[in-house]
Specification:
Elements (H helix, E strand, L loop, with lengths): L16 H17 L9
């Protein structure tokens, strides 16, 4: 789960904790750089 001020909460499930940590770091980085595009239902 990624919660960042000014952005919608983003949730995704993974098989391993490491995969989840990698995804959350990439997602937060995209939010900071301003290139994050939300996909999926609103």
């Amino acid at each position: 789960m990624v919660r960042k001020h000014g952005w919608p909460t983003t949730i995704k499930t993974f098989r391993t904790r490491r995969d989840a940590a990698d995804w959350s770091r990439r997602t937060e980085d995209k939010m900071v750089r301003g290139v994050y595009i939300r996909s999926g239902p609103k």
